[in-house]
Design brief:
Shape of chain A: globular
Strand content of chain B: 5-15%
Distance between the termini of chain B: 31 Å
Structural class of chain A: alpha/beta
Largest sheet of chain A: 6 strands, mixed
Structural class of chain B: alpha/beta
CATH architecture of the largest domain in chain B: 3-Layer(aba) Sandwich
Helix content of chain B: 40-55%
Number of strands of chain A: 14
Strand content of chain A: 5-15%
CATH class of the largest domain in chain B: Alpha Beta
Helix content of chain A: 40-55%
Distance between the termini of chain A: 35 Å
Number of strands of chain B: 14
CATH superfamily of the largest domain in chain B: Nitrogenase molybdenum iron protein domain
Largest sheet of chain B: 5 strands, parallel
CATH topology of the largest domain in chain B: Rossmann fold
Oligomer: heterodimer
C-alpha cells in the first residue's frame, strides 16, 4: 500500500471499500508532494499552441520557451510558425529595469520577419512582479502592425492549468467575431478542443464532411486565425477536451447565441455518439442517415480487427493517469471494448462530477486518484499488478522502471488515437505494449535470476 | 532553407532582440541534475509548480528514467506574502514521503525576483526541526534570468561543496589519500567511465555529481523512491581533505567553481582541464592521472589509444576538409571541436547558447592547427546559427550537437550527429560515451560512418565496398 501524505488521503478513493463516495479535488497541490501537474502557463500554451499561423512569444526568462519548443504533435496543413520557439529571454538587467522595451522590440522584429496573422504574448511568472504592462505593449504593437497582438496572462503561480486554459480562451475571445460570416451554412460547426495530434482533427473533419456538416474553424487543431475570426458564424460548437474549451463555448453562447454540445472522439462508442449528437442537433433526417451509414461502414471495417486484439487482451489490467478527467471516461470505455479492466484511474484536474462519473463507470476495487504523484502511482501499479499504464511523458518512466507496458495518450504522441481509425491504432498499441516479449526478461516477471530458462 | 509559406523572410539583421529556438535551458535545470547525483537526495525547486514539471519532462525525455523534483508550488498569495510556509510544508512532505538523506533546493526566477531569503528560511527550518533526524539541506541560487542550465549546474556543484565541506573529514574509514573530480555535465556513461579509470589507477576518488546510476538504473521489481547511487554525503563533507581536485571545463576560467573554492579556502590544488574528448584532450587527462597517482596509464587505455589512432588513419580520407557546425553546451563544444580538429574536420561554426565569455579563447586553444576560419558564436540561438550559416556560406557537411539541432540539420539537408544533452528524439542519450579514447573511438566511428552513409545513399549506383 502507498504511503499517502496525510493531506492527500481524501484524494484517493477505492471503490467498494468506503461506504460513501468522497474524493477531494480541485485543491492546490500540496507543497513537496511531487504533483504531476503543470502550471497556468502550461495550460495557455497547450491550448493555443496548435494555431499554426500565429506568432507565439514567451515573455520571461528562457526556461518556459525552451521547455515548450515543438512540444506537441499538433500537425499543420500549411504554416508551421507554431513549431518555433520565441522568447524575450529576460536577463538580469531586464528584471531590474523592466522588460517592456525588449518585448516591444522583440515583437516588432518577429512580426516583420514572419508576417503572422496574430501574435500571442505569454506573460510568465516574473512579468507581473517586475511590473511590465504587457497589455499596453500588445496594444501598441497591434496598432502599428495591423494584426491582433494578444496578451495571455499566464503567470505560472497564478492558479492551475485550468486558469491557463481560461487565459487562452480570453485571448481567443478577442479574435472571435472579427471576420466575415456570409458564406457559412446553417449546418455548420466549430470543432473545439481537438488539437490535431497526429492529424486527428483531419480525420474528424473528414467525418463531418461525409455527414454534410461545414466546419468553420478548428479551435485549435491546425488552427487558423482567419477561421477563428469568423467562428461566431457557426451554428454549433462541438466541444472536446471540455476542461479547456467549455469556457470558450459558454462565452460564445452568451455573446453570439451559439449552442454547444460536449463530445469525445476517443473510442468507438463515444466517437459514434458524438457524430450522432451533431446530426440530431441539426434535425436533418438525411444527415442522420448518412451518419448511420458512415458509422456502420467504419465499424464493419475495424470491428473484426479489434475482435482479434480483444481475444488476446481479454482480462488484462490497465491503469490510467491523464491531465483532464474527461479523457479518462473514454479510455475506460475503449479499454472495456478490448476486454480490459481499468484497475486504477486518476487525473490531474478532475472535478467532483468527473470523479462521480468515473466511479459509476469503474468496477469494484478500482482506485480513483486526484492529483497523484510518482510514489502513489508506482504503488498503485505494483498493488494492482497492472499490464498497461496509460498516461503522458512523466508517467512513462514509472511504468517502464517496473517493467510495465505503457501507452502515451498525451500531446507528444505520434499515433492518431481519435476516431474509428484511432481506436484501431489504440488497440494495436495496447496489444504491442502488453504482448512484447521484453516483459518476460524483467525482474518483475522473472526476478533477478540469471538462470537459463528453457 | 524551408519553403514553408511562413518561412522567415531573410532579413540580414545581426542583432536580434528575441531568442529564436534557444540553444540553452534555464539555470535551475542544471541544479536539479546535480542534486540527483547525490546519494539519497531529492531535488527541490523553490518556485511555481510548472518549473518542476517542465524540467522533469525535459530530463525524463533524455534519460528515460524517473526524475522526481519536488516544489514549494507558489500560489498568488505565496508570491505576495513570501514562500516560507510553502517551503517548510514542502520540505516536511518530501521528508515524510521519501525519507531522503538530503534535499537539494534550487531557486527559480520567481523566488529570486521577489527576493526570497532561502538561506534564512532554511536556517529557521533547521531550528524548528532540531532534534529530529531530518535530511541535510543544501541550497543554490539559480535565477533563470541569469546564465544557462550549465551555470546552474556548476553553481550547484560549488554550493553543495561549500555548504558540506568539513575540515578533517574522511570520505571513508580506509581512505586517506583521494582526489575530487568535478566532471561537469556529462552523460551517465561518461561518469561510469571516469569511475572505471579511477579504479584502474587505483585512485580513490570523489566524483561529483554522480548520476551514473540514479539516472541510468536497471529494471526494478519494486519502485525505488530514490534510486540507488550518487555521491555520498560523507564523501562530500570530506572534499577539503583531498590531495587535489580535477575539474573539467576550459570555460570555467571565468567562474568561481567548487575547485577554486577548495583551493582558496583549503589549499586543495585544483587542476582544470578540458573535457577529455579526442586524443589531445584525453592525453591531458591521463597525464594528470599519472601525475596524481605516480602510476603509468594502464595498458588497457594505452591500447584503446593505439586502436583509436589506428582508426583515425583508416578513416582520414573520408574526413579531411569536411565541414561541421558544432553546437551545444560550451565545454561540450570545446571538446568536440578539439576532437574534430584533430581528425581533419573543419569546425566552421562553434556555437553555444551559453555565454561564459571564455568560449572564443577556449576554442582558440584547441584549434591552433586549424588553417581554416573557425567562427565562434556564444549566446546564440538556432535561428541565428542558420542565418549565419547562410550568410557566411559555411556549407557544412554535418551538424554535431544535441537533438535540438534536428531542425537546423533538416533545413540544411545534412545529418545531425547526436551527442551531449538533451537528446529527445532518440533513445540512449545517457549511454553515449564521449570521454576518453574509448569515447572518441565511438564518436569517430559514428562521424565517419555517417558521412559514408550520405555518400553511399546519394550515389546513383550504390556500392558494396568503401
Amino acid at each position: 500500500m502507498a504511503d499517502i501524505l496525510r493531506e492527500r488521503e481524501r484524494q484517493v478513493y477505492r471503490k467498494g471499500q468506503q461506504q460513501a463516495f468522497q474524493l477531494d479535488c480541485e485543491k492546490q497541490s500540496a507543497a513537496g508532494s511531487v504533483s504531476q501537474r503543470a502550471c497556468v502557463f502550461c495550460g495557455s500554451r497547450v491550448v493555443l499552441y496548435p494555431i499554426v499561423d500565429a506568432l507565439h512569444i514567451v515573455h520571461g526568462p528562457i526556461g518556459c520557451a525552451s521547455y515548450t519548443w515543438d512540444i506537441r504533435g499538433a500537425l499543420s496543413s500549411g504554416p508551421e510558425l507554431h513549431r518555433l520557439s520565441f522568447s524575450t529571454d529576460l536577463q538580469e538587467m531586464d528584471v531590474i529595469q523592466g522588460g517592456e522595451k525588449k518585448l516591444y522590440a522583440a515583437l516588432c522584429e518577429l512580426i516583420d520577419a514572419h508576417q503572422p496573422k496574430a501574435a500571442f504574448v505569454y506573460a510568465t511568472c516574473i512579468v507581473g512582479v517586475i511590473g511590465d504592462d504587457v497589455e499596453a505593449v500588445c496594444k501598441r504593437v497591434g496598432l502599428e502592425k495591423g494584426i491582433p497582438v494578444l496578451a495571455v496572462h499566464s503567470e505560472g503561480f497564478k492558479g492551475t492549468k485550468k486558469d491557463g486554459y481560461r487565459a487562452a480562451c480570453d485571448a481567443l475571445l478577442q479574435i472571435v467575431g472579427t471576420g466575415p460570416v456570409e458564406d457559412i451554412s446553417p449546418r455548420s460547426i466549430n470543432i473545439l478542443g481537438d488539437f490535431n495530434l497526429a492529424g486527428e482533427t483531419w480525420m474528424i473533419r473528414d467525418y463531418y464532411a461525409r455527414m454534410g456538416v461545414q466546419v468553420v474553424s478548428c479551435i485549435t487543431g491546425d488552427g487558423r486565425i482567419d477561421d477563428i475570426r469568423r467562428s461566431h458564424g457557426a451554428a454549433l460548437n462541438v466541444v472536446q477536451c471540455s476542461g479547456s474549451m467549455t469556457y470558450l463555448a459558454k462565452s460564445m453562447k452568451e455573446k453570439y447565441g451559439i449552442p454547444f454540445i460536449r463530445v469525445s472522439y476517443f473510442g468507438v462508442e463515444d466517437m459514434s455518439k458524438s457524430l450522432y449528437d451533431v446530426a440530431r442537433h441539426f434535425k436533418d433526417k438525411e444527415m442522420l442517415q448518412r451518419t448511420q451509414n458512415m458509422v456502420r461502414e467504419e465499424l464493419q471495417r475495424i470491428m473484426p480487427l479489434i475482435a482479434d486484439y480483444r481475444r488476446v487482451l481479454e482480462g488484462k489490467r490497465a491503469a490510467i493517469y491523464v491531465g483532464g478527467a474527461f479523457k479518462a471516461f473514454s479510455l475506460v470505455s475503449a479499454l472495456r471494448l478490448l476486454g480490459m479492466k481499468t484497475v486504477m484511474v486518476g487525473s490531474q484536474t478532475g472535478n467532483k462530477d468527473d470523479y462521480e462519473q468515473l466511479r459509476e463507470l469503474c468496477d469494484e476495487g478500482t482506485i480513483i486518484a486526484d492529483d497523484s504523484n510518482p510514489l502513489e502511482l508506482s504503488s498503485f501499479l505494483e498493488e494492482k499488478d497492472v499490464d498497461v499504464f496509460i498516461g503522458g511523458v512523466k508517467e512513462r518512466p514509472i511504468a517502464y522502471k517496473l517493467g510495465i507496458g505503457f501507452c502515451d495518450h498525451n500531446h507528444e504522441r505520434k499515433e492518431a488515437l481519435a476516431g474509428f481509425e484511432g481506436m484501431l491504432n489504440f488497440a494495436r498499441e495496447v496489444y504491442g505494449s502488453v504482448m512484447s516479449p521484453v516483459w518476460q526478461l524483467t525482474p518483475r516477471k522473472r526476478g533477478n535470476t540469471l538462470e537459463v530458462v528453457k | 532553407m524551408s519553403s514553408q509559406p511562413h518561412a522567415p523572410k531573410k532579413i540580414p539583421r545581426p542583432n536580434w532582440i528575441s531568442t529564436r529556438n534557444p540553444c540553452k535551458a534555464c539555470a535551475p535545470l542544471g541544479a536539479t541534475l546535480v542534486m540527483r547525483g547525490i546519494a539519497g537526495a531529492v531535488p527541490f525547486l523553490h518556485g511555481s509548480q510548472g518549473c518542476a514539471t517542465y524540467m522533469r519532462r525535459y530530463i525524463i525525455s533524455h534519460f528515460r528514467e524517473p526524475m522526481d523534483i519536488a516544489t514549494s508550488g507558489f500560489s498568488e498569495a505565496t508570491t505576495i506574502f513570501g514562500g516560507g510556509a510553502n517551503l517548510r510544508e514542502g520540505l516536511g512532505n518530501v521528508t515524510s514521503q521519501y525519507h531522503p538523506s538530503l534535499i537539494g533546493i534550487a531557486t527559480t526566477c520567481l523566488t529570486e525576483t521577489i527576493g526570497e531569503d532561502v538561506s534564512g528560511l532554511l536556517h529557521e527550518y533547521r531550528e524548528m526541526t532540531a532534534g529530529s533526524k531530518g535530511p541535510t539541506l543544501v541550497h543554490v541560487s539559480t535565477p533563470s534570468y541569469s546564465g544557462t542550465h550549465i551555470d546552474g549546474f556548476h553553481d550547484a556543484v560549488r554550493a553543495v561543496v561549500e555548504q558540506l565541506a568539513e575540515v578533517g573529514a574522511s570520505p571513508s574509514a580506509y581512505v586517506d589519500s583521494f582526489v575530487n573530480l568535478f566532471p561537469g555535465m556529462v552523460s551517465s556513461e561518461d561518469l561510469r567511465f571516469l569511475k572505471e579509470v579511477a579504479a584502474a589507477f587505483e585512485m580513490p576518488m570523489t566524483l561529483f555529481p554522480d548520476y551514473s546510476e540514479t539516472l541510468d538504473g536497471p529494471s526494478m521489481e519494486k519502485y525505488q523512491k530514490i534510486p540507488e547511487g550518487g555521491t555520498t554525503i560523507t564523501a562530500l563533507r570530506a572534499t577539503p581533505s583531498a590531495k587535489a581536485t580535477i575539474e573539467f571545463g576550459r570555460i570555467l576560467r571565468t567562474k568561481k567553481t567548487a575547485a577554486s573554492f577548495l583551493q582558496e579556502k583549503f589549499d586543495v590544488p585544483a587542476k582544470r582541464i578540458g573535457l577529455p574528448i579526442g586524443v589531445h584532450e584525453s592525453d591531458i587527462f591521463f597525464a594528470a592521472m599519472e601525475k596524481l597517482t605516480g602510476l603509468k596509464t594502464p595498458n588497457k587505455y594505452r591500447q584503446e589509444r593505439g586502436r583509436l589512432v589506428d582508426s583515425y588513419v583508416d578513416g582520414h580520407k573520408y574526413l579531411f576538409g569536411k565541414r561541421a557546425i558544432v553546437f551545444g553546451d560550451e565545454d561540450m563544444v570545446v571538446g568536440l571541436t578539439s576532437f574534430l580538429a584533430e581528425i581533419g574536420v573543419v569546425p566552421v561554426l562553434c556555437a553555444s547558447g551559453g555565454k561564459s565569455g571564455a568560449l572564443a579563447r577556449s576554442i582558440a586553444e584547441v584549434t591552433t592547427h586549424v588553417r581554416d576560419t573557425v567562427l565562434v558564436r556564444d549566446g546564440v540561438d538556432f535561428m541565428t546559427m542558420a542565418e549565419e550559416t547562410e550568410l557566411k556560406a559555411l556549407k557544412p557537411d554535418f551538424v554535431i550537437g544535441s537533438s535540438k539541432g534536428a531542425k537546423l540539420a533538416r533545413e540544411l539537408g545534412v545529418p545531425l550527429i547526436r551527442v551531449g544533452f538533451p537528446i529527445h528524439d532518440r533513445i540512449g542519450g545517457q549511454r553515449i560515451l564521449h570521454l576518453g579514447y574509448r569515447g572518441a573511438q565511438q564518436l569517430f566511428d559514428l562521424v565517419v560512418n555517417t558521412l559514408l552513409e550520405v555518400k553511399q545513399d546519394s550515389s546513383s549506383i550504390g556500392y558494396s565496398y568503401l
